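Below is our example:

___
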Amino acid sequence: MNADTIWQQALPILQEKINTPEYQVMIKRIAAVGCEDNALRLVLPPVMSMEKFNGYRSLIEDAVSRVSGQSMTVAAMTASAALERPAPPPPVQ
């Protein structure tokens, strides 16, 4: 299962647990950018701080673990940090 699939399937689970305004403004706008070693990499929307994200981290980890069927962690970065980071190499085929 790829990162975006895991994230898209976790969103309805999170929507049930997070109040609507915060879900719509922040959680729904998080982007999944990769998944490796049981860690889902996320990029936060500009309106969400790392501090705010950390308040939701356990809910998010529970949701992505449930969807993937394995214990997963999440690694998040702000949108500005993602722009500064070089793109990962393409997967080896």
About this structure: The chain has a mean pLDDT of 89. The longest helix spans residues 50-68.
